[in-house]
Design goal:
The protein is of the alpha/beta class. Helices cover about 25% and strands about 25% of the residues. The protein contains ten helices and 16 strands. Helix 3 packs across helix 4. It starts with 5 loop residues before the first strand and ends with a strand.
Length: about 350
């Protein structure tokens, strides 16, 4: 069926080029695909902590007065432009976070291609993207499940596998129970590693154990949580860390390391920053990597792993399109486990 000429779309708007945004549901044109472009009917999108920072005006998007939010979305190809070879009408696809990062080292142009930040994102009934900026969805996943992958899934994959070279038997530390950490938990279990997770909620820790965590620590009731983490490893420490907490959690994560460990520096839930003690890393023969999502090649490798190991993303709640602002409220509250999805 031919796509309509107009669509419903959420935009974030503000009176100037700085400060917080507010939501506005608008009628917008549907741009037909040009050469090497694909038109996608978006069926589901998902949220990340970055999106809350953006709404508050705390995430760098340049001097913009409006923006379509969200980097993560999945849908169906409904039209293709001339010269398209990677997809055809009817294919199920997901957009990649950085539209210009295909493989290898990121080029200087990559930062300017982030969906829902540098360029308009996915909270729209239709999007027109380069065929290079899409991947095929795993056949085993729904659109809602596929929409959770582009940021949180690829970030966890990059931190643990591409940069961390995680292997069976590794002790893996996950912080909190948001999207990145729960994907990390699932990937570690599937790879035969031994995940340990932290949370401020005992109920969430129990849920994580049901997914395969070998242990959990409540960082609110145990402020020096690196001690029970080390105890859970028999005193050795952890080989992999998905460090999403930022300056508050980093010292504890570094105190949890085993010799030769890898720390993936990802987020700033407690505020970006924190010191990396060079001598501590050297004495432990440890490495620290800055992780900002990953490439299309990372996404495609992750999808193959998901299919091989039957990984099913954990979705806490799915909202309808009309209730999209409420999904952001839930993300800001922290009262969720895994991913938050909006169905279009």
């Amino acid at each position: 069926m031919a796509a309509p000429s107009t669509q419903k779309q959420y935009r974030l708007v503000r009176p100037g080029t700085e400060g917080p945004f507010t939501f506005k549901l608008v009628d917008a044109p549907v741009r037909q695909p040009g050469a090497h472009e694909v038109l996608v009917r978006v069926h589901a999108v998902s949220l990340n902590r970055r999106d809350v920072f953006l709404v508050k005006g705390q995430y760098p998007v340049g001097p913009r007065e409006s923006l379509v939010p969200l980097s993560d979305g999945a849908g169906e190809v409904v039209a293709v432009g001339s010269g398209v070879t990677r997809f055809r009408v009817g294919d199920r696809v997901a957009a990649i976070f950085f539209q210009a990062w295909i493989s290898g080292y990121p080029s200087p142009q990559v930062q300017g291609s982030a969906l829902g930040g540098s360029v308009d994102g996915m909270l729209s009934q239709y999007v027109t993207l380069s065929e290079e900026g899409l991947v095929s969805l795993p056949a085993s996943l729904s659109y809602e499940e596929g929409a959770t992958l582009p940021c949180a899934g690829v970030t966890a994959w990059n931190g643990l596998f591409t940069r961390g070279q995680m292997k069976a038997g590794d002790n893996v530390l996950l912080e909190g129970t948001g999207g990145v950490s729960i994907f990390g938990l699932q990937f570690a279990v599937a790879a035969g590693a031994k995940p340990i997770i932290t949370s401020s909620s005992d109920a969430k820790l129990e849920h994580a154990k049901q997914l395969g965590a070998v242990g959990g620590v409540n960082y609110k009731t145990t402020p020096d949580w690196e001690k029970p983490v080390r105890a859970l490893t028999g005193g050795l420490g952890v080989h992999q860390v998905l460090e999403v907490g930022g300056k508050d959690s980093l010292p504890h994560a570094l105190a949890s390391l085993a010799p030769g460990a890898h720390v993936a520096l990802i987020g700033g839930l407690g505020g970006f920053g924190g010191d990396i003690p060079a001598m501590s890393l050297m004495l432990n023969n440890a490495t620290a990597s800055g992780i900002y999502v990953g490439s299309r090649a990372d996404f495609e490798a992750m999808n193959r792993f998901i299919e091989e190991h039957h990984v099913k993303p954990v979705i806490d709640k799915t909202f309808e399109f009309k209730d999209a602002p409420a999904a952001f409220d839930l993300m800001e509250s922290g009262n969720f486990f895994g991913k938050i999805v909006i169905r279009l």
